[in-house]
Specification:
Layout lengths: L5 H15 L2 H10 L7 H22 L5 H22 L5 H8 L3 H7 L2 H20 L7 H23 L3 H9 L11 H15 L14 E2 L5 E9 L18 H5 L3 E2 L3 E2 L5 H9 L9 H6 L3 H8 L2 E6 L12 E4 L9 E2 L2 E2 L8 H6 L5 E6 L33 H27 L5 E9 L4 E2 L5 E2 L13 E2 L1 E5 L7 H7 L4 E2 L3 H8 L2 E2 L12
Parallel strand pairs: 2-9, 2-10, 4-15, 5-6, 5-9
Antiparallel strand pairs: 1-16, 3-14, 4-13, 7-8, 10-14, 11-12
Helix pairs in contact: 1-3, 1-4, 3-8, 4-7, 5-10
């Protein structure tokens, strides 16, 4: 094979990525600037400008022996990002990267399929192999440096020259349609990765901010046993308790539960929503760093003397349960309801009696569900709960009809209905001598194909309501009956996960400066 210059490989790689890995970007651009006589020249200029920008970007990153590794890395990243953007219409930003970094092997396996392998092979591995096998022609150090400067300066000049005739369109592109840049592959993902990595190394020595050291429980005669269920990807409009046409909550309907029909999430991913909902910060003030360096409501309850246990059938607690008792139930060593790699949520109820009976204090148990984790919704429930058919039986959601996807999703909700009803039955055993209650709140919602969107994780400011409007349910034991009328009055008001912090403190009658009665949706 003929030896090539590094500039040749850089230009070739840039063109390949723009033409074959950026279908999602250009699809969204065309939605704003349609293909017609007015916009065609501008759209063609975008291909040229984006290609030149990648040439500039790769030239700055790659030098001599690092050229091939950098270009191969770019091709692999672009192939994977292209698959997820084209298949699920998701955006790869720092929040999504944080979610990916916290994903476990079970969740990764759920995403594997032949289509992903084909994308990786055709758009990643084969062009990467071509780069690997192509011999490079090197000149002297000074020659290579001069060539590098020429390419960088030349790319900058050409970008300006190509953009100038379409300046009014580029002005609107950058000012009014900033979201379009989020779809550039792989540049936005790499920028987001840089933001994520920087955040991980930032302020590592900040001491933990202690909350609620003054917390104490107002005296009460009966012990409190509360179970908080953190749901997964459960959108409110698919709960029959909220008026959905399919009966997804038949058992809960009999339990006299109260559905908070207007509950909204703090984020659109588990990695953001779970730590945010337990934090003292409102959504607008919350950040990952604040969440890491500040105690949460579980810590405050522990300070007050409540025994806290977190059981997890999802990936993990996202740092929420770092300082309380924690049990990982997504394995068959603890969870006796595991079969063929799927551990059922119901298994988290087994053995809870021993934790409750070994304590004479108030108890909070948090159960973190697998719930409606996608895209393999059909794996989230046993065969006996396949009530709605035909159901999508693959993780390639685009291969299923909208009806099949919704049926599989609703079957998973039906199993959550069973799990929550069993949780209530478990609490009823303790009702005669204890104050009991169950709170259920999903971490985020889910897109099921509306507008071509699937799953979740779209940046909050542009995310559809389906990804933010979450299921939330409260069941209270007989001794809380006096509160019922007030709770029911609050049920249809607008609430968010910001309210959970004070609501949990209020349930345990905790007195503290960090408790805000106005934020308590049960008061």
């Amino acid at each position: 094979m003929q030896a090539r210059s590094s500039t040749f490989l850089i230009i070739l790689t840039a063109l390949f990525i723009v033409l074959f890995d950026n279908g999602s970007f250009f699809r969204h651009v065309i939605a704003v600037y349609p293909v017609n006589a007015t916009y065609i020249p501008f759209l063609l200029s975008q291909v040229v400008v984006f290609s030149l920008f990648l040439v500039l970007f790769f030239s700055l990153l790659a030098w001599r022996i690092f050229i091939k590794p950098v270009l191969i890395f770019m091709l692999i990243v672009a192939a994977f990002e292209n698959y997820f953007m084209q298949t699920y219409n998701v955006l790869i930003d720092e929040t999504m990267i944080e979610n990916v970094m916290q994903t476990d092997s079970h969740e990764v396996f759920d995403l594997m399929n032949w289509k992903l392998f084909i994308y990786f092979l055709v758009l990643g591995l084969l062009p990467a192999y071509f780069i690997y096998k192509t011999p490079l022609r090197y000149g002297s150090f000074s020659y290579e440096l001069v060539q590098k400067i020429k390419v960088i300066v030349g790319s900058l000049i050409l970008i300006i020259v190509v953009m100038l005739p379409f300046s009014k369109y580029y002005t609107s592109f950058f000012r009014e349609h900033k979201i379009l840049r989020y779809y550039t592959n792989p540049t936005h993902a790499l920028f987001s990765l840089g933001v994520y990595v920087k955040a991980q190394f930032k302020d590592k020595n900040i001491p933990l901010k202690i909350l609620g050291e003054d917390a104490k429980i107002k005296k009460h005669k009966r012990r409190k046993i509360i179970i908080m269920v953190v749901g997964e990807a459960a959108r409110a409009d698919h709960f029959s308790l909220n008026g959905y046409s399919k009966e997804t909550n038949p058992l809960l309907k009999r339990e006299d539960v109260i559905s908070f029909s207007q509950m909204f999430s703090c984020g659109t991913t588990t990695a953001v929503s779970v730590p945010c909902m337990f934090s003292i910060y409102n959504r607008g003030d919350y950040s990952t760093q604040k969440g890491i360096h500040t105690e949460n409501v579980l810590d405050v309850l522990k300070h007050a003397g409540v025994d806290v246990l977190w059981r997890d059938n999802n990936s993990d607690s996202k740092g929420v349960a770092t300082r309380v008792a924690y049990q990982y139930y997504k394995n068959n060593h603890l969870n006796t309801r595991c079969k063929e790699g799927e551990c059922r949520d119901i298994g988290m109820l087994i053995g809870l009696d021993s934790f409750i009976n070994q304590s004479n204090k108030d108890v909070l148990i948090v159960l973190h569900q697998m719930g409606n984790h996608g895209p393999a919704y059909y794996k989230r429930y046993p065969k006996a709960y396949e009530k709605f058919t035909p159901a999508c039986k693959t993780n390639q959601l685009e291969a299923c009809t909208r009806e099949e996807i919704e049926n599989a999703y609703d079957n998973a909700l039906l199993y959550t209905d069973y799990f929550l009803s069993q949780t209530i039955d478990f609490l009823k055993k303790y009702e005669s001598k204890n104050d009991t209650a169950m709170l259920y709140m999903a971490d985020h919602g889910e897109s099921l194909g509306e507008g071509g969107l699937y799953l979740h994780g779209i940046p909050y400011f542009i995310a559809p309501e389906h990804q933010k409007h979450v299921g939330s349910i409260v069941w209270i034991g007989k001794t809380f009956a006096a509160k019922r009328e007030k709770i029911e009055k609050n049920a249809n008001k607008d609430w968010s996960q910001d309210n959970l912090f004070s609501t949990l403190l209020g349930l345990f009658n905790v007195e503290s400066k960090v408790y805000d009665k106005r934020m308590d949706f049960l008061r």
